[in-house]
Amino acid sequence: MAGTYHIVDLTLERTENILEHASRHHVRHFHDAAWLHAMGQDLIFCMSRPSLPLFGFASSNSISLLYKYLAEEDDHAQRLFSITSHAASFLSTHLSVPVQFQGRLLEFPSVKVLCAFYLWKQVQHRRIMIHSMCLAHLLQQGKSVEEAQEAFLNAPDEKARLHWCAQHLEVEKVPAWQLNGLIGYWARQEDRLRLTLHQDLPSGPDFLAFLMDAFGRTGE
Question: Measuring CA to CA, which residue among 135, 107, 104, 129 is closest to residue 201?
Fold first, then answer.
């Protein structure tokens, strides 16, 4: 396959099944700290498999694994099946509920396009998190689902919605890790490579700059 970078992108399916069996685990919403912790653990588990991706990003509903190069003779279908199975097996065991991922293999010709993809992933994650927390807060205020959706759509801006999120979590400000996703990467520590989970990411243009620096390039 041509291209400089490859990503195995895993998207969670049948999410309703997870919440329907909440009695088996501690997840009540997909904005829960318990849920994001599980996704972070799943990311690290996938990155420690023999294929050893260089970088990973976990959101509320997906895990993306970055490879610098996949050889022409590599069995891409088998690799995709293996990683998807690993991710689903780990999360299913962790939650005691059957979990399923849909996997796809993506190619990127440059760092610039690659970073734009990860920025898009983060934007999608933030939208899911903010929407979920806002609805939970509004429902707690006694609104119906329809009223909560209408109030969410009529909010003046993201600042107002983030205020609702903070009220729901009973904090002054929503933690960055809960809004901006989680990344995993290999870092050299004491002459050894160690797999690290980074949980305090910036957002928007700052996240884009963070990625460009992380990949060691200023643009292509």
Answer: 129
Query: Which residues are paired to 9 by β-bridges?
Result: 64, 104
For residues 24-44, one letter each, b for 16 or more C-beta atoms within 10 angstroms of the residue's C-beta and e for the rest, the string is ebebebbbbeebbbbbbbbbb
Q: Which residues does the chain have with pLDDT short of 70?
A: 1-3, 22-25, 50, 69-75, 216-220
Give the Cβ contact number of residue 6 at 10 Å.
21
CA distances from 154 to 40, 111, 148, 169 (A): 33, 37, 10, 21
Cα distance between residue 191 and residue 211, in whole Å: 24
Residue where the block lists tokens 């990860």: 118
Residue ranges, comma separated, of all CATH 3.30.70.3000 domains in the chain are 5-119+178-208
Report pTM. Answer: 0.85
The CATH-assigned architecture of domain 5-119+178-208 is 2-Layer Sandwich (3.30)
Distance between CA atoms of residues 186 and 53, nearest Å: 9
Q: Is 211 helix (H, G, I), strand (E, B) or coil?
A: helix
Local structure of residue 60 (DSSP, 8 states): S
User: What does the H/E/C string look like for 143-196?
Assistant: CCHHHHHHHHHHCCCHHHHHHHHHHHHCCCCCCHHHHHCEEEEEEEECCEEEEE
